Amino acid sequence: RGEAEHHLRAYEEREAGTLAVPYVEPCFRVVRAYLAGDAGPAATEELERLQGSTNAEAVSALRLLRALRDGPPAEAAKTMAMIAHDGSWFQVGNAQRVDCRRKPITRRVLGGLVEHLRHAPGASMDRAALCQAGWPGERMSPSSAKRRVEVMIARLRDAGLRGVLETTPEGYRLAPERARVPPEPAR
To answer: Is the pLDDT of residue 85 over 90?
Structure first.
């Protein structure tokens, strides 16, 4: 719910009525209905009608709608995640360990989130810091940086961190109550 409200505010501030994407406004109309507790059959019909969109913003809006409609998976909300201090792997609950060693950008972004969790539990890491962690020294436009971070966050969630990696108004964070970092191996 908090993530949906955050994205809705960001969308409204950014677009302010100058919408060029025909799918996004109907998506956010449905998000507003769900947040107001006023989503009935019309909202479900609108969601089904918008399913075919390939526009990135519409796909994100649809993902939010599904999350609002279905709610968080019960097991994801309660499951603990073990995450390597350097982001090289993570394991959620009893699921198989996810190896990130051969995915350097994923490893660096996750490692940055872990480092942030260790030094400032509960605090969020902003997009600029996440971009610097994942693509150090690389020059890119602000919109490209924003999109890269959003895609990486979505990939981490899809890989198993959905109930652990949270969106906040300030950025992103590993939920301190669900993420654990085992001690670093002795050298």
So the answer is: yes
Q: Which two tokens stand for residue 82?
A: 């073990």
What is the distance between the alpha carbons of residues 15 and 173, in angstroms, rounded to a whole number?
A: 26
One-letter-per-residue 3-state SS of the chain: CHHHHHHHHHHHHHHCCCCCCCCHHHHHHHHHHHHCCCCCHHHHHHHHHCCCCCCHHHHHHHHHHHHHHHCCCHHHHHCCEEECCCCCEEEECCCCCEECCCCHHHHHHHHHHHHHHHHCCCCCECHHHHHHHHCCCCCCCHHHHHHHHHHHHHHHHHHHHCCCEEEECCEEEECCCCEECCCCCCC
- pTM for this predicted structure: 0.60
- Whole-angstrom CA distances from 153 to 46, 158, 176 are 27, 9, 17
Give 29-81 pLDDT, tens digit per residue. 666 666 666 666 666 666 666 666 666 655 666 666 666 555 555 544 457 89
Which residues, 6+ apart, have CB-to-CB distance to 140 below 8 Å?
Answer: 131, 148
